[in-house]
Structure formats: C-alpha cells, structure tokens
Amino acid sequence: MTSRNTLIVTVAALVGLGLGATVLRGQVPVSQAQSTQATAPKLDETAARLQNEANTIDIVKRYEPGLVYISTEQTVQADPFGMMFGQGGTQQVEGVGSGFFVNAAGDILTNYHVVRDADRIQIRLLGNKQTYTATVVGRAPQYDLALIRPSKLPANLVRPIPLGDSDRLAVGQKAVAMGAPFGLDFSVTEGIVSSTNRRIPIGFSNGGSAQGITQNAIQTDAAINPGNSGGPLLDSAGKVIGINTQIISPASSGGEGQNAGVGFAIPINTARNLLTRLQNANGKEVRAPIIGITPGLVALQQSQSGPQPVALGLGSLTESAKAQLGLPARGVVIAQVNKDSPASRAGLVGGTSTRSFQGGQISLGGDVVTAVNGQAVDSLEDLQAGLIDRKVGDTVTLTLVRGGKTRQVKLTLDAAAFQQTN
C-alpha cells in the first residue's frame, strides 16, 4: 500500500561545516591604545543613508524580476523495514530553493543541492502565480552548481541578471542577497563582503556521497538562511558576484540552526567558467578538471564487491616509513601518468616499482606532488582544490619531489582536462 503522506522539508544550505560555534575574541592592551586629536570631516549621515537606500531599492526594482523561486518533489521510501510487515510505502518530500536567469534563453543557475535527486522541478517568478516545469541541463556536484531550463516559459518573462567580476571584489563593499529563506519567496537582505577568499568545503565529491572539495568562497554578513541556496549575491551595481550556498549555523536552544551573520557564496567567476560546459552537458554531470594521473599510495578497503583501493596522502604514513623510503612529509604519490594528458605533456613521471604493506601498497620512483600554485597538497581533494576554479588554457605551477629533489613544473589545463562527464 502506497502512503501519500507529505513531508515538507526546506532544502537547507549546508550548515556548520564542522566548525561549531566558536567565538574568537581579540584583545588589545589598554597601554597600547592610541588616541588622536585630529577632527574627522563631518559626515552627512542622513544623505549617506538615503543614498544607500536608494541604491538598494534600485537594485531590487531592476533585478529582482530575474530571481527564480524553485520548488522540488522527490519520492522516497518512508520505512524500508515496514514493508516486511505490510507497512511503510513511499512519501513525497518537497523542497524549496532559489535561482536566477543567466541568459535570454531562460537558463537558470542554482545550487546542485537544491535540485539533487528531484523527481520534479517547478519554478515561479516574481508577481506571477503560474508555475513552470523545469529540467536539469547540467549538474556539477563538486562545485554545488546546476543549470536548469524551464519549458513553455514565455520569452518576455525571462529577465537575466548581469554577471559581475568576483576577482575584483574588495572586503567591505556592499552585498545584496536575494532568495527564498525558509520558503519566504522573493526576500532581500543587505550586508557587506566580509572576505573575498575564504577556503571552505563546497559541493559533493565521490559521486555526491561525501563533502566536497575545498575551494574559495565569498564570505558575507548579508542574512542567508535555508532556502536562500542558489540565489544571487549582488554588488552595488546590481551585478551577480556570487551564488549563495552555505552558512555557519550554531544551534539555538531548540536545536534549530540559525543565521549567525556568516554566509558563503560561490564566486560568480567559478560559475561563469562552467556555464558553457553545463549548457552542453545534456543533463549529465560536469566534473572538475583533471591532470591525468593515478595515485600511488592506496589502502585496500573491503566492500561487498571485494577490496577497493582508496587513495591516501603521504601524511597518513608514519614518519619512520617516509624516512626509510626517502619520501617528503606530505604529498600525492604518482603511480601512473596517462597518455595524452596535461600531466604527460608537462613531463610528470609515474612510479617504477611497487611495494606492498599490510592493507595497501605504494608506488616508488616517480613524482610526488607537494603543492599546486604554492598551496600544499596531501590528497587528491587537495590537488583538485588547486584546479577547480580553472578553465581551458589556464596554467598552474606544480611543486614536485623526485629522487629527493624538489622542482617546479608548469602544467597547462588543455581541453583534455575538461572532457570527462558522467
């Protein structure tokens, strides 16, 4: 018997990030405090406030029509064990999120986690009760991005919001967040850019089963809450500078997460680099660029289908083992370099021998990648973090250790690095 129970679940931003709710308090000794006798120019607070208000009102009036309210439905098994006793069945899980038009064709950019596993996607526009069915054009779980396209949407209702340049952001500049927090569709909040280069885990790796790759994010104190996911973060010119994706959310006394003035947005330049690939994905998954190597330090993990290799970084080995093998303290060991790959064209070298140990094996004699563009790496995720916001033609600098000697190599991410889809 199929149950028609309906459970409404707000598609929430990924909260917490394992950081808890720690508050750091800085102290300045009183003896070091300084005072000044200079008289600052008098600020016309009324005029300044009105100018800012007028700017915000203008942004909302011009660009809020490009905001999209997204609702999803997913059929899930209510109680798989209840089926054994003639109970259980399925139920419809509903979610909400946000998105925005990125072109005149009606393509809508949003978060992957907003539409993840949805059986049905519908959109609604500002001041319009009509809903339109949408389908996923391309998905990029590692970036927590997806592109959806509505059907039978009149062209005159498509209002793209112009894209800005997230590489030119400055801490302290204005930030306006649009979205549907807690299902309160078409809401607007205002704040500032708190940081332009905050490194946090974003998206999902391993086929969407694990937390994603560490990458750069914009931090803002503009209020972002569950339901804001996928909505735009705009600057004072009304251009999109980021896509709202996560919050740090300490639990309240009732156990519910709440906004703490620390929200994160995916830089719009990262999304811009993916747009063409998402538009041409035909509903498939777009992945982060690869350089074409096979990891050389693996542990064999037991599964139902037998032992499965799990890549490790050198940090997982004991200091004595690394000293005995002449290996650096941290890094990704290369077992094999694929033909016709960016790694092979850059001259990277794979291992020449393999040594087994209890529960795994390691390749020796090849390169060990210890950094990408100066950022230390000790896992495949770390390596991808240095590549994830790149585009075709970009060059990265790899720090390698071979035979105990350190060197740097320039590697170009050509078309081969971006061709994989699933």
Automatic annotation (TrEMBL):
Entry keyword set: Hydrolase, Protease
Coiled coil spans: none
Signal peptide interval: none
Domain PDZ, chain residue ranges per copy: 297-404
GO molecular function terms attached to this record: serine-type endopeptidase activity
One Pfam family this sequence matches: Trypsin_2
UniProt GO BP: proteolysis
InterPro entries cross-referenced by the UniProt entry: Chloro_Bact_Ser_Proteases, PDZ, PDZ_sf, Peptidase_S1_PA, Peptidase_S1_PA_chymotrypsin, Peptidase_S1C
Family per similarity comment: Belongs to the peptidase S1C family.
Name of the molecule in the record: Serine protease
